[in-house]
Design goal:
Blueprint (H helix, E strand, L loop, with lengths): L6 H6 L13 H18 L3 E5 L2 H7 L11 E5 L5 E5 L3 H7 L5 E5 L5 H7 L6 E4 L5 H8 L3 E4 L1 H8 L4 H23 L7 H15 L6 E6 L19 E8 L1 E2 L2 E2 L2 E7 L4 H20 L6 H14 L16 E3 L6 E5 L12 E4 L3 E3 L3 E3 L3 E5 L4 E3 L13
Parallel strand pairs: 1-5, 3-4, 5-6
Antiparallel strand pairs: 1-2, 2-3, 7-8, 8-11, 9-10, 12-13, 14-17, 15-16, 17-18
């Protein structure tokens, strides 16, 4: 249903998620460390340095974002993992740490990269997290042989376990429910900022820590994939595009719906149907052993056959068809030309081949799937129709 309710009524009927998915178990995290060490062996590296951010959380449970102060995991090919941490942050780190490790502290006037280098033999080969900043990498390279650790890190994180899939399923189910409620509060004159505040509050009411992000676009603003500045007011006969998500135990949702608020033109209807067909084609193409770029090609083929594009030309699809998702909202691999990563069981992607008609309107339908042994499986059911955003 679109419209007919209020933010107050919808929030009053929400309560924390009844069956939350379990957090990642200690045994699973230990298995991740073991597989990372196997990757070091294949690469011939002596250790892996993982910077603060989603990969550190993946391996240790420590959910810190990267700053100018180095917080990192040094994982040697054998022996106990080492956590590098500012001394004054020790208590906070220990509160989140989910593995056994040696903790080595540095004071504000000391060099954390020296602490890393001192833990290894002179000239050892160190595989680096690709998200480590250049300055730290340069300093480490003065004492150690540096190689790219992306193959190890991405190789682990791209394929999700059943426990990870369950956390992602909860996040996506929660966001889809928030989308349903947001559609109900729409009315002429409502501001985008009001809808955003409602969406954040609804995520919190369900047990998330609020919206990880939220885009609310009406009418003309839908022609811009990430919207326009300002605070729009909804009018009759406009398209509504809402893109939002939350996190559960760090795992992301990211769902977009585009639907009509009142009557819209036949052109909009035809392109909405084309968008749905392109999304369906991408889903059907996502099979184990196929390349990521083949999924992007499948969506674009539908659009180009209808006279849109080609490539990134407009009217058409101005960006990739999809992105990997997990502990980061955008992570490898990507459904885009040139990414020849082979699809494999457990890989998770957005599917969002947006159609943009420049300076007029845009239509994006975004749901996510994970790859199974036989093909793709939706996390959430795609939008039913232009007037029915939800099944």
């Amino acid at each position: 249903m679109i419209g007919g309710s209020t933010a107050e009524a919808e929030l009053a009927s929400l309560s924390p998620w009844a069956r939350p998915a379990p957090a990642i178990a200690r045994a699973e995290r230990d298995g991740r460390l073991a597989r990372a060490r196997e990757g070091l062996g294949r690469m011939g590296a002596d250790a892996l340095l993982v910077n603060a951010g989603p990969s550190l959380r993946y391996l240790t449970g420590v959910g810190w974002g990267a700053t100018e102060r180095l917080v990192a995991l040094l994982l040697p090919a054998s022996g106990q993992p080492i956590l590098i941490c500012p001394a004054f942050e020790l208590g906070s780190l220990q509160a989140e740490l989910a593995i056994d490790s040696d903790i080595r502290l540095w004071e504000e006037d000391e060099s954390p990269t020296e602490l890393v280098a001192d833990a290894l033999a002179p000239g050892a080969t160190l595989a680096l997290d690709p998200l480590l900043n250049f300055g730290a990498a340069r300093r480490l390279g003065e004492r150690l042989r540096i190689v790219d650790g992306a193959a190890i890190i991405d190789g682990l994180r791209m394929r999700k376990s059943p426990a990870e899939l369950a956390l992602m399923q909860q996040a996506k189910d929660m966001t889809l429910e928030v989308h349903r409620r947001a559609a109900r509060i729409l009315a002429p004159g409502i501001r985008a900022s009001e809808v955003k505040r409602f969406i954040d509050a609804a995520h919190r009411a369900l047990g998330a820590s609020g919206s990880f992000f939220c885009a609310v676009q009406f009418g003309y603003a839908t022609a811009f994939p990430h919207g326009l500045p300002g605070d729009q007011q909804l009018e009759e006969k406009q398209l509504v595009l809402i893109d939002t998500g939350c996190t559960i135990e760090g795992y992301h949702s990211d769902i977009t719906r585009t639907y009509a608020f009142g009557a819209v033109s036949d052109e909009v209807r035809d392109l909405w149907a084309l968008e749905k067909a392109a999304q369906a084609a991408a889903f059907e193409a996502a099979k184990p052993g196929e390349t990521c770029e083949s999924v992007d090609h499948a969506a674009r083929a539908v659009l180009e056959k209808a006279g849109l594009g080609p490539d990134y030309r407009l009217p058409g699809l101005p960006h990739r068809t999809g992105h990997g998702i997990g502990l980061a909202i955008h992570e490898p691999a990507y459904l885009v030309r040139g990414d020849r990563t082979l699809l494999a069981e457990g890989m998770c992607f957005s599917n969002e081949p947006m159609i943009v008609v420049p300076n007029r309107f845009g239509i994006r339908l975004e749901d996510h799937f994970h790859v199974t042994a036989t093909g793709a499986k939706w996390f959430t059911e795609p939008q039913v129709s232009l007037e029915r955003p939800f099944s």
